[in-house]
Amino acid sequence: MPTTSTAVAAKPIADTGEAIASLLLSNNLITDKQLLHARRVRAKLAQTKSLLNTMLELEFFSQSQLNEVLKNAKLSIRLGDLLVELGDISSQELEMAIRIQREVANNQKKLGEILVEHRMIREQRLIDVLANQLGYLHVEPEFNSIDKALLDIAYLPVCEQYGFMPVRRSDNVVVVACTDPNNRDIRLRAQGLLNSNVELAICSQFSLQTALHKFRSSSGPRAIKSNNEDSLAMKLVDETLQAAIGMKASDIHFEPHSTKMRIRFRTDSMLWQFKEISNELAVSLIARLKILSKANIAERRRHQDGKLEYTDPNSGQIIDVRCSFYISVHGEKACLRLLNRRTELLNIDSVGMSPAVLERFKYEALEAPSGVVMITGPTGSGKTTTLYSCVDYLNNDDTSIITAEEPVEYVIDGVTQCSLNPKIDMTFAETLRHMVRQDPDVIVLGEIRDHESAEAAIQSALTGHKVLTTFHTEDTIGGLLRLMNMNIETFLISSTVVSVLAQRLLKKVCPYCSTVHRPTPLEMQRTGLRSEDLRMANFLVGKGCETCKFTGYFGRISVFELLVLDEKVKEAILNRKASYDIRRISIECSGLITLLEDGLEKASRGLTTIAEVLRMLPRNEKPRSLAEIKRVSRSPDV
Ligand SMILES: [Zn+2]
Fold first, then answer.
1. Residues, CB-to-ion distance under 5 Å, ligand 1
2. Most buried of 87, 595, 627, 638 (most Cβ within 10 A)?
3. CATH topology for 222-340?
4. Which pTM was predicted?
């Protein structure tokens, strides 16, 4: 009665002996004849014996041949059933152990543990079966040969509570010894603590306890103190990250000073102190951050980068955190950039463009069938947020969008996003070659940095794609000039670039403590405001209150300068006109509202202050009158 291996898998567990017999048949370890013989012998025996045990005694195959077959077959045989088949325990003993497990131990103990505790099997034999027949890794932890770096990470109280000991790291997996390698809690706990994938290995109770004991005494009184600090540091990291997420901070600074460490948050572009901690705790804290971000914990003399993924227990949000470790005279400074995956995705209608600019940007730039749309500004000008709003606007069922970013900052459903990784040679050029073969309608290039990426953007537009990208320049005309300086032909620029949007973020007047502000003569002169402009303006400043932490500002607003390349502007570029001329033509003939004009218009509505306008915006030429700006931007009156 030969059976196929599929039939084996479907058999009930009660037939473990038959299942193994079929496995042996299909591996040619026994013949049909031998199996029949074994069954006959077994039936004649005075004492009941398992089929497998009978065959072993008849010496049809060796123990090691059996081990090999069982290990490779990966049958889902339960440990207890296997032990009965192997003749290590009787079926009555198995029944008894299962009853103890259920009724006495409340299912809190594993079967193997109960069998050993009640002396039904020796521990060493149990380990043999688990390792040799069920294929678990078998490692006895030798404390002295354990990787020191692992001991730095392993937190003794957790190892003791869950009963495990890290042994070695190979590739990205840490081998962790325990007495119950099938235990999910141990696996999860070890993975969390070691911040790594984990392979659980079986070891004896004795060697585990010995290793843990040596770990405890190797630490001595100094380490017991440092263990306290470690657990404090763990808590502090959690508490700090949660507070930062709750306050929508963009960055967290951990700054060592001569006597203490200062922790500061950046919210709405302003830094403020969250708390101070002792230098002793600071050392543990930095170590904890390094572990979490997979940086090298032993390296304390070089700058390092890392990243981690943090799940906020309060909201369930997943936050990507980029970590930078910088060596300062007082020790390591850590700076964490919080990259929120979803919530900061702004609708293009609410990024803060004036009605006229928004309409032109949507219909003449984003909805153009092909061509390059550039968003420019310095670091921290909000251009990435606007870029994502554009992607969000174009993201629908009949558009294919693909990105190459450095790195992906927000994950958007429905968009194929890729983080460039120069470390493994996944460069811009390489990625772009593959991108165009993905049949995209819209290509998003995180940033134009050099001639190569500029050329790539232009080439993609020439082949009929819509290209969105950012560029690190002062203003819109500056973006065009930089392209020319990167040796991109003027006819290529004028035939592919659809529009350039320049952006800045300005601090917003705190609505809780704002008061009327009359511009000083110096402010009037420096902004180019005229006295008749004051009639249609309501300038404000914040006096400072609890809510704005006495800064007078709360939140931020964006100001924009949109250049659409119409015929006149294209002609000016083709003729390589000076930037002054291109700017004048854009303002006079193409409806350009400058950053300064948009800023003044927003200040006139009390959204930001004249001081912010002066501090943040380029002043290339005198602005038009407020009345004129309001007319062309169709902004609401004050
Ligand atoms: Zn205030």
1. 510, 512-513, 542, 545, 548
2. 595
3. Beta-Lactamase (3.30.450)
4. 0.56
